[in-house]
Amino acid sequence: MKVGTFYSDVEVEDHSLAPEMNDSSLSSPLTVDQLVSHFGLKDRGFDSKQMRAIEELLQRNASVFSKGDNDLGRTHLALHKIDTGSAQPVKLPPHCVPLHLQQEVAEHIKQMQERR
């Protein structure tokens, strides 16, 4: 088996969404300025020609970026396999959810089922 891995040369230290990228803006694609700001691309030392190329790329592909936690979907374009070598996969029973978190887990499961 093989593991499919996606490597990105853009690292985002703050994984929270920028203020302009909240759930209220889910109805429209992100703007190029929002994406450039969110990924901190202005501070990466690109020259103006490179920045124009990046902005054009982002413009063409703005619809592929998630705008929040509730707009993620499925894809058939990537396969994920885990290389276990010759070892059998480990089978463990599911972990028990602590009592004080069970309501929150139930709400998350309900939200995920509604998004299917």
TrEMBL record:
Superkingdom of the source species: Eukaryota
Record's protein name: Uncharacterized protein
Source organism: Cirrhinus molitorella (mud carp)
